[in-house]
Design a protein that fits this description.
The structure holds two protein chains of two kinds. Chain A has ten helices and five strands, in the order αααααβαβαβαβαβα. Chain A is an alpha/beta fold. In chain A, strands 2-1-3-4-5 form a five-stranded parallel beta sheet, sandwiched between helices. In chain A, α2 packs antiparallel against α3, α2 crosses α4 and α6 packs across α10. The longest helix of chain A has 23 residues. The radius of gyration of chain A is 19 Å and the shape is globular. The longest helix of chain B is centred in the last third of the chain and has 14 residues. Chain B is an alpha/beta fold. Chain B has 13 helices and ten strands. Classes of the chains: A alpha/beta, B alpha/beta. The interface between A and B is medium-sized, with 24 and 22 residues.
Chain lengths: 231, 256
């Protein structure tokens, strides 16, 4: 494709082309272009939920798959996440004021005690938000008390714990033990995730689910929340 | 003093940053020929992280007793940034060469493998250095815990990481291409601690610059080579370590 062919106005694209272009721009981490694309769709009276699902979440799914397959690496994924954040910035206030309640419920998420890493957690949080959860982000370095307090206050449908370090991931088991002791496990689902984790570890500590990446975590949480709603 | 057998793995899909040579001593390629039973019974393989190459080469080069019975091979240092690949690479190497040796020591910590490396080592009846990572076995578990207790937001550099900071940290994290990501990576870090294997003024100055690049407070702690004692045990006397540390200024290991 020539340089001339690359130079076009987003507003000249029809809706389908524009959604695809937003997905491409998100993949390339182009903040301004994603922001502009979302603005155009809103001006065309697109529903904010549709923009979120079709353009942004759709784009991030591809990013998640390519990250999993070793095509994209962490820096590129972070650029993609930054672009999605731009689009979300436009959509969030509209979604918050939406008359139709599409919320899947609350998701309490936090990095465990001793760990200050939050890149993965933030990616998951953004995907959860995109999927329709109200995300309660506890931040980093959370002792068990923080999770307990947040559960009491927010009554989440899912609670998520994140860790990047092999030295801190065992603390997830400490939190789960405390939840067991208090008989709280029946009230919500517990998901765990983080670079060094795997399904075997999640099973060993008794977590309900292991999210191997941000997109998959959001899908699993959504599936659980819908099943709860249907009951 | 000649090293009898030092090799460094390079992988075609990785950059030139993974290829090492030791000046005057390098023997690229496969030097691990099938050993006779007599030789095999005496040989020890040290399979190391490329980020420990300076220290491992020196430990062996300056100790005739060790040099005679230890073969050294280092995997690419860039595995530091992709810990999910470490166990597989170690397994691959030991499956090909491990049986040639009476003893195999893997100069890695757990290094973010979440036990996967230990599973591989059990399969090959090999051992590794104690601790979660090189920061812990160099600093010692107690001192490392003290660092983390005092300040959770501590970012560690060793001699090797200071020397190749731009390649392994800046380029490894994509900060050369996307400098705006610095805050995403480091917003919760407050200090950079250079845990030094050698007393080198130039490296200390460079480490200070690394801290400045990341916007972190600089701290320095000399920790030496104690963390690598298992490499030479029970071959070498502990007193020999001081000679090795003082000899570091002469080492020439370069990227090629």
């Amino acid at each position: 494709m020539s340089e001339q062919d690359d130079d076009f106005e987003l507003s000249d694209l029809d809706d389908k082309e524009l959604v695809e272009q937003i997905q491409d721009d998100l993949y390339d981490g182009l903040n301004d272009e994603v922001f502009e694309g979302v603005e155009i769709l809103l001006a065309r009276n697109w529903d904010a939920n549709d923009i979120l699902g079709d353009a942004l979440v759709g784009g991030m799914k591809v990013v998640g798959e390519d990250f999993r397959d070793g095509i994209l690496f962490v820096p590129e994924v972070l650029k993609c996440a930054g672009a999605m954040k731009q689009g979300m910035g436009l959509l969030r206030p509209i979604l918050a004021n939406s008359a139709i309640d599409l919320s899947l419920g609350k998701f309490v998420i936090g990095t465990v005690k001793g760990d200050i890493h939050d890149i993965g957690k933030n990616l998951v949080g953004m995907m959860l938000e995109g999927a329709g959860f109200e995300v309660i982000d506890l931040g980093i370095n959370n002792p068990v008390e923080n999770y307990l307090n947040a559960i009491d206050e927010h009554k989440p449908v899912v609670m998520g714990m994140s860790a990047l370090l092999t030295t801190t991931m065992p603390y997830m088991g400490v939190v789960l033990e405390e939840l067991d002791k208090r008989g709280m496990r029946k009230d919500f689902h517990v998901m765990v995730g983080g670079a060094p984790l795997n399904q075997e570890f999640a099973d060993a500590i008794g977590a309900d689910a292991y999210g191997r990446d941000a997109a998959r975590s959001a899908e699993m949480a959504s599936s659980h929340a819908r099943s709860v709603k249907a009951c | 003093m000649q090293i009898k057998s030092v090799t460094f793995t390079s992988r075609p899909d990785l950059s030139a940053a993974n290829k090492f040579s030791t000046a005057g001593n390098a023997q690229q390629g496969n030097v691990h020929q099938c050993k006779s039973q007599e030789e095999k019974s005496q040989k020890k393989l040290v399979l190391g992280c490329g980020a420990l190459v300076y220290e491992l080469v020196e430990l062996i080069k300056h100790n005739p007793l060790v040099n005679q019975v230890v073969d050294l091979h280092c995997l690419p240092a860039t595995l530091h940034n992709t810990p999910q690949l470490i166990a597989g690479e170690v397994d691959k190497f030991l499956s090909e060469k491990g049986a040639d040796y009476a003893e195999v020591l893997v100069a890695y910590g757990d290094c973010g493998t979440a036990g996967a490396l230990d599973t591989v080592l059990a399969k090959h009846q090999a051992t590794r250095l104690p601790g979660a990572h090189c920061y812990e076995f160099f600093a010692g578990s107690q001192q490392y815990d003290d660092f983390m207790e005092a300040e959770l937001g501590s970012f560690f550099l060793t001699d090797f990481l200071v020397k190749f900071f731009d390649r392994l940290v800046i380029e490894g994290l994509g900060l050369d291409r996307y400098p705006e990501l610095k805050d995403v990576y480091f917003k919760h870090y407050t200090q950079l601690i250079y845990i030094a294997q050698t007393n080198d003024a130039d490296l200390q100055e460079k480490a200070k610059q690394c801290a400045q690049k990341l916007g972190l407070e600089y701290r320095y702690r000399f920790v030496g080579l104690d963390g690598l004692r298992p490499v030479t045990k029970p071959i070498m006397q502990p007193s020999a370590f001081s000679n090795i540390e003082s000899a570091f200024s002469n080492i020439e290991v370069n990227y090629v």
